[in-house]
Amino acid sequence: MDTTEAAPVGDAPAAPVGRTEAAPNDNTGLGPTGRPRRHIPEPPVLASHGPAKIIAMCNQKGGVGKTTSTINLGAALAECGRRVLLVDLDPQGALSAGLGVAHHDLELTVHNLLVEPRADTDDVLIDTHIENLDLLPSNIDLSAAEIQLVSEVGREQALGRALYPVLERYDYILVDCQPSLGLLTVNALACADSVLIPMECEFFSLRGLALLNDTVAKVRDRLNPRLAVAGILVTMFDSRTLHGREVMSRVVEVFGDLVYDSVISRTVKFPETSVAGEPIITWAPKSGGAESYRTLAREVIHRAGH
């Protein structure tokens, strides 16, 4: 289903907030999306690595679990034997901080890859403490990049030029975009193979999807013909609330199989991992949140065939 046709999301009726009913019975064979549970095969072992598939983690609405999902999907993919590079494209540096990097003290960041005089990508790369997971960090310096890039020729391709030298080393590159649809986000979309959209399971999040779909369609038409929507990841889901279940039902109704079967439920573990500077995969490896991201990683690999 082409999501550029999906404007009716803004017309979804509002559900009563805070109203609760008993959660659906788990024994029905239905998953949290309301669809029958589907088997996701174990990822195959790779004989070699690269070239990377670039996935832009994008939603112009803040507070939807985008950075948390970037960190934990990246860690789960790495656990599956994939080589993963995380790119922090948000001047707030939340992705870098979430991996325990003292980003305010860094001399070289993504900013130095985008504007003159450009640094080498290898000089900016940081090894995380997680096997197969690397990082291109960011901090507040990146906030100047949009202004500095405006007058440059090929300004939308700056990130793609920076990532090109390392494509063969990785299987996946996840770009954590800032919560806006500005030039930095357009840079991510211009070099990405696909967009993964984390969406809080809340009525007003539905409205923002139409605007994001429109931006993706414009970038596809004008800058990056291969750009596709990889899928929509529902986050902060609470099956106990009628509102959450109605929003879930509406998302699945409109977007169909673009909605991942994997769903990220609310849990206190995620704020704890942010403070610890670790993914939930390593901080609480047996938690429900960790298992959800492992399932998502298998689903991403299965869909990508990589």
Automatic annotation (TrEMBL):
SUPFAM superfamilies: P-loop containing nucleoside triphosphate hydrolases. Transmembrane segments: none annotated. Pfam families: AAA_31. Residues 1-18 have a biased composition (Low complexity). Residues 1-47 are annotated as: Disordered. Signal peptide: none annotated. Residues 52-228 form the AAA domain. This is ParA family protein. It comes from Rhodococcus artemisiae.
